[in-house]
Structures are given as C-alpha cells and as structure tokens.
C-alpha cells in the first residue's frame, strides 16, 4: 500500500529541511507518494493567498502532511492547516541528546498541547476606540480529548509522570473547566498525575526538568512551554512535532523559517527529520521511526553537525550521514 | 516625615519573611510607621474573607504596602490588592548573583508586566453546558501606560535593551494593539527597542539571557516569563517585585507561601528584603535601597544561606547577617 504524503516546504529553511526529510523517508523500504504543495510568504506574494485552496485540498486528501515552515504568514498557514487535518492534539517532545551543549542535559519531556481552542479561537474585536477583546474558549469536549490523548500517550510511551498545566487560579471558569475535565479523565483511567500552575511550572521545568514527563496543556501554555523546553535542550533546531487528528495528521518542526540563515544550506534538518519519524510512527511504521531516530541521534552525537550546534556541517552532509546510518 | 507602611504577612513563609524585611527597614535611619493587616487562607478561615475590608483600607491609606504571600487564596488577595493600590505596572527584576548556582549566571533582566488587564479581566462565563469563555481585554490606554513606564524605567536604570513581548501573530487585535501602542511610544521617545513573539522569547531568554534587558509584557506573558527568569537565576526565593501605581504601590516577593517549608524558620528572606529595597527606592530613599541591596548581595555571596540555596542558615541568621552589613 502506497501512502500519499502532502509535502509543503513553505518558506526559508523549510525549503531546505523538508527535502532532507523526504530524502530520509525515500531511503526506507516504504512506498510513499509525495505530492508537493505551496504555502507561505512567497506563495502569498504570487497568488495573494498564504494557503491556497489546492494546498488545503492536498493536505485534506493525503494520508499525512509534512510541513516545513512559513515566514511572516506562519499563522495564516499553520493554524488553518492544523484545522484542515482536524488535529486536536499537538505532540511536542523535547529531549536532550548526549554530547550536545544543552542548558539542562536531563530533559525528556513531551508536551501534549490542546490544538483547537483557548486564545486561538480567532474571536477578536475592537469594541470601542482603543479597547479590544479576545474571547478565550475552553470546552469540556476539547479538554477531554486532549486529556485522554495525553494519558494514553504517557501509557503507550512509558512515561510515569503526567502533569496537567493550567492557570485556574486566575482563569477560574475556563482553565477551571480544563483542569476539572483532565482530572476527571485521570480518575476514570485510574491514572496518577500532578497539576501545576503554568507560571510555577515554567520555573520548575528550568531548574528540574527531570521531575517531569508528559505535560498536558491548554493551547497557548503549550506554545510557550514547548519553546521554553527547546531552550533547555539546545534550541529549536531539534524539536519535532505532530498535529494529530482522528483521521489525519500533520508533522512539522517547532522552529520557524529562520530567514537569517535561509538559503545558506546550513539549516539543521534534525527537527524536520524527527517530525518525519513521528509520521512513520503515526502511519504504523514504528520500527522505521525508531531507525530514523537512532540514526539521527547517532549523527547528533558523532557529527557532522550544523552551525547552530557548534559544527560546520551542511544540511546535506548531516542528511547524508543520517541516511547512511539507517 | 514618617511613612505609613501597611504590612500584610499573609500565609506560610509570608509570616517569616515579612518580619525579616521589617527588621531590615527598622535598622535604617528612616521613620516608618508599620501597621499590620490580615489576609490569606487563615484570615479567610477566621473571617470568611481572604482580604477583609479593613486590610484593603489599610493598604489604600498607606504610603506603601509590603505583602508577604498567600496560600490557596493567593489570587483573592493579590489581585484585589494590586487594584486597591491602583498599580498598573508590575516590576520584576531577575538578576543572577555571583557564587549562586544559577542555570544562567549572566542574567540581568527586568520584566515590566502590565498589571490590570489581559486574561486577568475576570470576565468569564459558562455560555453553554461544557463551553466556557474568558474575555481578554487589551486597551490602548493601559498599553501606553505600561510602555511609557517600561521605556522610562530602562532609561533611568541604565538598560540599553528594551524588548516588547507579544503574540500578535495569533492575538491580532488585542496583542496587535499592545504592540502597536508600545511601538508608538518608542517612536515618540525616539527609543530603540526590539519586539519578540513571547514563545520564541521564552526560548531565547533561556539560551541567551545576556541579550536582553527590560522586557515589556502583557499581563500573563509577564507572569510566565518572570517565573521562567526565576528558574534561570536560581529560584523564586530571590525575586522581588513592585506593583506601582500613580499614587501608591505594593511590594511583594514573586514567590508564594511555600507551605512545604513554612514554620521551619528556613525560608529565604532575600526576595522579601529586596522587595523592601524596591519600596525604599519608590519612597525616595534610593541610597538606602542601594545599601540594602549591597548588604543582601554580600550575604548571598558569603553566606549564611538558606537551604534553597544549598546552605543551612535560618531566616533569622540570614536577616541578622544582612542587618549587620548595612
Ligand atoms: C506560528 C504560530 C501561529 C504557531 C503557534 O502559535 O501555534 C507557532 O508558534 C507554533 O508553536 O507552532
Ligand atoms: C497568585 C497569582 C494570582 C499571581 C498572578 O498570576 O499574578 C502570581 O502568580 C504572581 O505572579 O504574582
């Protein structure tokens, strides 16, 4: 069976790291049909739309989508794409690799970020001159879905620690509902968990990341906390992510289009290749996913490395080294 | 002229660190009239209210207020207290001290956190079964006030770097207004600045705190980012804060009531004593404020230190050592 994969490189280093991931996938014994779609700043300049209708259709119709990065238009591309694939869970692992200069070398975290609501509702207005409002939405259904996904993920992947992040002391109704629903899910599953105010959690994750495993978060808290974790493990160049829906999914690095280094051939392909490994898991090729992760980790350990990790390797050299080790 | 200072120790270690700060203030040659007020969990248990009316009046009528910490009722105490003193700016310095085991020893940051709006509006409801909303409010007036305060603070305190934190790519109207207003203030003052998406900023602050100085933030972003900075410099036990209004102000440590160590006499008084130093500055005793900071820094460097900093000193020993060095 051939899997149809939508490939959307986007802008900047998305154009460099996406082909790298495809090269790695091509080196495996799995039949993929890669179909490329356009999105991002350049696409908007050409067509007037950052995410044209045919790219949406491509993602909707594919078995999975690989997305690179977008520039100024990032929100106009990634938020609708997450919706198109119906993803409710954003899975963001942050792991320190041996030999890399991490702020906290003992980090092994996975953020399970609610992917549909919170301040991402898009409901904003200027209700009077100089007075604007945004409606933050939290529903029991979405909170239940993300909590079930999070506890299931922890179980399947061998994480003992589950933390529910929230700010229910201030956002009493909304994060109150999020927290209460997640705690109810834990009780139904008879699962252990902790809860943490997201501000205090930000501090503790920095000083004691080893105390945490899976962190279930509302949308914006997950956005910030996962970037924070990127800081702990040595940068955004390493963090993959999966946007998981009931029937479809989208895989993307946590990093952006990095215009400062785009076009120089030195972008770190790790985050994108590890995103492709998450796609392999999702499509049922967990063993191939492991092979890609092991090869990537070996290359992180022994080099070549790209400049963001202190090396002088190119995107191509790193990718070739990973392919060689598969 | 005698200054009337409302002293509200609150719960837990608030009962230990607040007297420590008063002891330090008492050792200076300044006339203070300290009047104590009740607030917090214990007060609620006794009176039914976490922040009784007479404590509010006390804070409103004082020249400044020192607040320790509160437990479960923290939000019911601190949020109304910030309102009572009319504070629009929450000033949170985060500095690494030599000799302490900081995650990032080169940190010298000051968060200027908007203190009245954002998701702290308190406007929430359950609009349907299992569907809750919160109205996040951002106004031009409050954004202008905090930006002016932030740029002024940077100038007065010799910080070259000012960063405006926001998430205007997602919260387009609300953080859009915040960002646009802050940029307009910078332009009027002919001040240099950078802007940063708060998620990316969370990462960069961890890997390169030395690149930042003053960070002007919306309310919740400031809440998270300042706790993150506490993680960088060695914990919440070190971070003071000032809630500044036009005519009144409230000074409090960033830490909470720490029920796990309360009553043991080992709470770190540093954050509270440095908060008192910020109060001295505010009341026009900048020189006395400097004396307190220098004495505190010397004791941080040479000990005694409380257990959170790896020492075995008590709150009293640390306080006595600071007083001795004044
Ligand atoms: C680009 C932006 C809309 C996006 C988000 O906020 O989700 C990004 O920060 C991310 O984390 O994927
Ligand atoms: C206790 C809570 C309401 C408060 C806040 O969110 O402002 C606290 O976290 C702080 O930072 O002072």
Automatic annotation (TrEMBL), chains A, B:
Record keywords: Oxidoreductase
Alphabetical list of InterPro entries matching this protein: IsoPropMal-DH-like_dom
An individual GO BP term: isocitrate metabolic process
Keyword Oxidoreductase attached: yes
All residue ranges annotated as the Isopropylmalate dehydrogenase-like domain in the record: 4-322
Annotated GO MF terms: isocitrate dehydrogenase (NAD+) activity
Keyword Metal-binding recorded: no
Similarity remark: Belongs to the isocitrate and isopropylmalate dehydrogenases family.
PANTHER family tied to this protein: DECARBOXYLATING DEHYDROGENASES-ISOCITRATE, ISOPROPYLMALATE, TARTRATE, ISOCITRATE DEHYDROGENASE [NAD] SUBUNIT ALPHA, MITOCHONDRIAL
Protein name (database record): Isocitrate/isopropylmalate dehydrogenase family protein
């Amino acid at each position: 069976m051939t899997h149809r994969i939508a490939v959307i490189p986007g802008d900047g280093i998305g154009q460099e790291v996406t082909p790298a991931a495809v090269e790695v996938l091509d080196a495996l014994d799995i039949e993929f049909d890669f179909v490329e779609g356009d999105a991002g700043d350049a696409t908007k300049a050409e067509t007037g739309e950052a995410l044209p209708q045919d790219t949406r259709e491509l993602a909707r119709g594919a078995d999975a989508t690989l997305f690179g990065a977008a520039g100024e238009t990032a929100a106009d591309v990634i938020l609708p794409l997450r919706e198109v694939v119906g993803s409710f869970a954003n899975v963001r692992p942050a792991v320190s690799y041996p030999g890399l200069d991490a702020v906290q070398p003992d980090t092994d975290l996975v953020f399970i970020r609610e992917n549909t609501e919170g301040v991402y509702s898009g409901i904003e207005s200027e209700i009077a001159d100089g007075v604007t409002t945004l409606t933050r939405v939290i529903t029991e259904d979405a909170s239940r879905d993300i909590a079930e996904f999070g506890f299931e993920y922890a179980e399947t992947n061998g994480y003992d620690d589950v933390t529910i992040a929230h700010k229910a002391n201030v956002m009493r109704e909304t994060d109150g509902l999020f927290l209460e629903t997640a705690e109810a899910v834990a009780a139904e599953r008879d699962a252990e968990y902790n809860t943490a105010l997201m501000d205090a959690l930000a501090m503790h994750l920095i000083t004691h990341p080893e105390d945490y495993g899976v962190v279930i978060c509302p949308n914006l808290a997950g956005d910030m906390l996962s970037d924070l974790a990127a800081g702990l493990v040595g940068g955004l160049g390493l963090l993959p992510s999966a946007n998981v829906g009931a029937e479809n999914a989208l895989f993307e690095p946590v990093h952006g289009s990095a215009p400062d280094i785009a076009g120089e051939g030195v972008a770190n392909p790790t985050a994108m290749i590890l995103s492709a490994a998450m796609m392999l898991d999702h499509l049922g090729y967990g063993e191939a996913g492991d092979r890609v992760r092991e090869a990537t980790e070996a290359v992180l350990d022994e080099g070549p490395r790209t400049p963001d990790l202190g090396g002088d390797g190119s995107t191509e050299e790193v990718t070739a080294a990973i392919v060689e080790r598969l």
